[in-house]
From TrEMBL:
Keyword line: Membrane, Transmembrane, Transmembrane helix
Region described as Disordered: spans on this chain: 591-641
Protein origin, superkingdom: Bacteria
Transmembrane segments: 43-63, 69-90, 102-123, 154-178, 185-206, 212-231, 254-275, 651-676
Species this chain originates from: Plantibacter elymi (nom. nud.)
Xref: InterPro entries: Bact_TGase-like (IPR052901), Papain-like_cys_pep_sf (IPR038765), Transglutaminase-like (IPR002931)
SUPFAM superfamilies documented for this protein: Cysteine proteinases
Residue ranges occupied by any Transglutaminase-like domain in the UniProt entry: 524-594
Protein name: Transglutaminase-like superfamily protein
Length: 817
């Protein structure tokens, strides 16, 4: 055997060091295959994987802004495949292949994933190296928590880049180093499609409710994968066959391919159109992941209202350029009330309101409910303002930080429905920014006279004082339309109340706050005294008690004259108002705060101590009449005992899911294959002694095949033992002896007792255990997932035990005659 040292042990899936020899199964003659260039079929395999992976990468386009993700994803895929092919050509081990992948990732990551930050758009720097490192680890979190379309942070394209590279490396290594060893095995071909399939699923899970060309991509992916799986396992089988046989196989393959393509397109495409779920039921991770920014971690903006009117009244907060007369600068919209404060609802309760703050890029998404008015281009220069809430006009469509704040653009969070923006790291003196925004058009009362309020879901308000509910019913009078009732409440508050910030210069004291006690005080003292904080809060609570969605907005209302280029905003310009949405128009503003500050002297500003008359409360829709109620037993036990049951924390469920899914993917197939092997062994042990002895040999050969050794499909037992002995010299003697003993038992024509068959089974199982123990740990694990149940040619052609014995008797009788 030229070229191969007889002392060399050839392990399954390996070649002797210093050579590229492979064992010719039929001639037992080693042939040498150079690692480079690759066989033609390997290039086809790589091309198929690239196309399928590219279809999967297109799914990221639903969540990302622009087409830059294609450069990152396809570039990473191509680089990963290049690393895999180079690993094969240079015969690199797993460690060196991994290190090469990391090196290529950092060398080309700046140009592909962060070109806008890279030096000269291609060279890496400290910012790009840090960005792609963060993006590779935490990019998935930004993908599922930030507002789409994603254009920030700058490292957001790292996720498709690293996903494409990983799939490219693994798929290329499998295609050029693993699949060619046994290309006829369909399961190996299917494994090669795992990477593109995972990439396709990742694009779906990290995408949005609106998919990107879902039907076209799905049909194309399935069609290419099915055609390749139908062609690849038998691509090289007919090379040594007769020409006529090859022609027949080729004709059948062409017909089968055409039929498969037609069925895949017609059935798959029709099913995709007919059975496709609606977009709102599409499962994507961003719908179940909580956004990282929680407004409830910060004080309620409305709680600090009096700070502006008392401590910062004359402080120059910021300079605004580009305002027009009547413009209001908004800070935050609050739609959640708990009896103590109006707050911006948190992400766990955010519905159509104010809690869904997400990271955005330079271009901000617009609200769903708006009637566009005029556009604004406003510049804000911060001087004395210090908070996280960004002063803005209307609904911004673009926000660009300048100056020293430019480096903190990744800290911006924005809520499109409320028009409120925050900078989580805070905004203060020296910061400035520009914004382009659209104001809400102000419809006339005539246009809204018969218009219903919009069906906007807001967080529920709780602990509304009864006096507020009663006054709401009193103030609306005979009005029945939404606009009529809201205007009646607004007018009543403006004409019967008085304005006071509680300053020493005010004619009447006014307590700060807008909790339930302060709301009750507002309506129980005569006359009503408060400022925008109390009146806006009261108006919103009264509107909500009537079933109208309302929110409190806090901001500034500086005086701007026509033609004035800029205005200095001070603390005394702070204000608050209420917004209620109307169907087809948007959020309409109401200003219930009175202008009158001088309280008549004959009025007593102190709260009355005498009891107030009882006012019958309007019935609630969720209460039943007493006559409809039935007696029910009341549990007087401690409520604490009811909650003492076992409550599994949420992190336990997540941990079980993260650990359980991979374990299940490993254990379930392993149990199924192990059960099939046990059934195979049991079936082969049954029957007469000669059949059981033949089954022992078949079981041993199948075990060798599962361990990765090359076993001929049709050969005698002695030939099979010789071929396996070349690959595993340590078992050559045992295999040869077992083959001879089995042939003698099977073809001798003698009755074989169970003891002889059991002995053969014990010897074959011992040899199989020895061969398995000679392999490494990973090879043994792979063998657990392989299943082979083909019988040898001799076993398939051998006569049954009864027929063999009858033939032997007939032969002896004929000889005697």
């Amino acid at each position: 055997m030229s070229g191969v040292d007889e002392r060399t042990t050839v392990r399954p899936g390996r070649v002797p060091a210093g050579s590229a020899a492979d064992v010719d199964v039929q001639g037992i003659v080693p042939t040498f295959v150079a690692p480079w260039p690759l066989p033609g079929r390997s290039w086809i395999d790589l091309a198929v994987v690239f196309v399928l992976a590219a279809l999967g990468l297109l799914g990221f386009g639903a969540a990302l802004s622009g087409t830059g993700f294609l450069l990152a994803g396809l570039g990473g895929l191509a680089l990963g495949m290049a690393v895999g092919v180079a690993s094969h050509a240079l015969r690199l081990n797993a460690l060196l292949t991994g290190l090469s992948t990391v090196l290529v990732f950092y060398v080309f990551g700046s140009a592909l994933a962060m070109p806008s930050v890279a030096t000269f758009a291609v060279l890496p720097n400290l910012r790009t190296l840090g960005g792609i490192s963060i993006g590779a680890v935490f990019g998935w979190k930004d993908f599922v928590t930030l507002q789409t379309p994603l254009s920030a942070p700058a490292y957001i394209m790292t996720l498709p880049y690293v996903a494409g590279m990983l799939v490219g490396v693994v798929s290329a290594v499998l295609a050029v180093r693993w699949l060619p060893r046994r290309p006829q095995v369909a399961v190996r071909c299917a494994v090669l499609l795992v990477g593109p399939t995972v990439l396709y699923a990742l694009g779906v899970l990290l995408g949005t409710q609106t998919p990107f060309l879902a039907a076209v991509r799905g049909i194309a992916f399935a069609l290419i994968a099915l055609l390749w799986l139908g062609w690849r396992p038998g691509a090289g089988r007919g090379e040594n066959a007769a020409a006529s046989t090859t022609a027949v196989l080729r004709r059948k393959k062409i017909i089968g391919t055409a039929v498969l393509a037609a069925v895949a397109v017609v059935v798959g495409g029709g099913a995709a159109v007919v059975a496709s779920p609606p977009t709102d039921s599409r499962f994507v991770l961003r719908e179940v992941v909580t956004p990282p920014f929680d407004p409830l971690e910060y004080p309620s903006p409305l709680a600090g209202f009096r700070e502006y009117t008392k401590d910062l009244a004359e402080t120059k907060l910021f300079t605004a350029t580009g305002l027009k007369p009547g413009d209001r600068i908004r800070l935050a919209a609050m739609d959640s009330y708990d009896g103590r404060l109006w707050t911006v609802s948190g992400p766990s309760t955010a519905t159509d309101g104010s809690g869904a703050f997400e990271l955005v890029g330079d271009h901000l998404p617009g609200p769903k409910l708006i009637t566009a008015g005029s556009d604004r281009r406003v510049s804000i220069d911060i001087t004395g303002y210090d908070d996280i809430w960004v002063p803005s006009v209307g609904y911004p469509s673009a926000l660009t930080l300048d100056g020293k704040a430019a480096e903190r653009s990744e800290d911006i969070r924005y809520n499109a429905e409320s028009g409120a923006a925050v900078i989580t790291s805070g905004i203060g003196a020296g910061d400035d920014y520009e914004e382009r925004s659209t104001t809400q058009a102000v419809p006339s009362d005539t246009a809204l006279a018969t218009t219903p309020t919009a069906a906007v879901e807001l967080p529920p308000v709780t602990n509304i004082p009864d006096i507020v509910v009663a006054k709401a019913s009193e103030f609306v009078g005979t009005e029945t339309t939404p606009m009529g009732q809201l205007r009646a409440i607004e007018q009543k508050l403006r004409t019967t109340g008085f304005l006071s910030h509680g300053l020493a210069s005010d004619s009447s004291p006014s307590r700060a706050g807008h909790g339930a006690d302060r709301m009750s005080e507002l309506f129980t003292r005569t006359p009503m005294v408060g400022d925008e904080e109390q009146y806006a809060s009261a108006f919103a609570l009264m509107a909500r008690s009537l079933g109208y969605p309302a929110r409190v907005v806090m901001g500034f209302a500086p005086e701007v004259t026509e033609g004035q280029s800029s205005v200095q905003v001070v603390g005394d310009d702070v204000t608050a108002w209420v917004e209620v949405p109307f169907e087809g128009y948007g959020w309409v503003a109401f200003s219930p705060t009175p202008d009158e500050t001088e309280i008549p002297q004959d009025q007593d500003p102190k709260p009355k101590t005498e009891p107030q008359p009882q006012v019958r409360q309007p019935p609630r829709s969720d209460n039943l009449d007493d006559s409809l109620l039935t007696e029910a037993s009341i549990d007087d036990g401690d409520d604490k005992d009811k909650n003492d049951g076992l409550v599994i924390p949420e992190w336990v469920w997540w941990l079980a899911l993260i650990v359980g899914v991979p374990v299940s993917l490993y254990v379930i197939p392993l149990l199924a294959i192990s059960g099939a092997k046990r059934r195979r062994t049991k079936r082969r042990r049954e029957g007469s002694g000669d059949r059981s002895a033949a089954g022992a040999w078949d079981e041993l050969i199948d075990r060798y095949a599962e361990l990765g050794y090359t076993v001929p499909a049709a050969a005698t037992r002695s030939t099979t033992a010789s071929m396996l002995g070349v690959q595993e010299p340590e078992g050559a003697t045992t295999l040869t002896a077992l083959a001879g003993t089995t042939d003698d038992v099977v073809f001798s024509g003698r009755d074989v007792d169970d003891t002889t068959a059991d002995e053969l089974w014990q010897r074959s199982e011992a040899e199989a255990s020895r061969a398995q123990g000679a392999l490494g740990w990973f090879a043994r694990q792979r063998s657990r997932f392989r299943y082979r149940a083909k019988r040898s040619l001799v076993s398939r052609l051998q006569p049954s035990g009864a027929l063999a014995r009858r033939a032997a008797r007939d032969q002896r009788a004929a000889g005697g005659r």
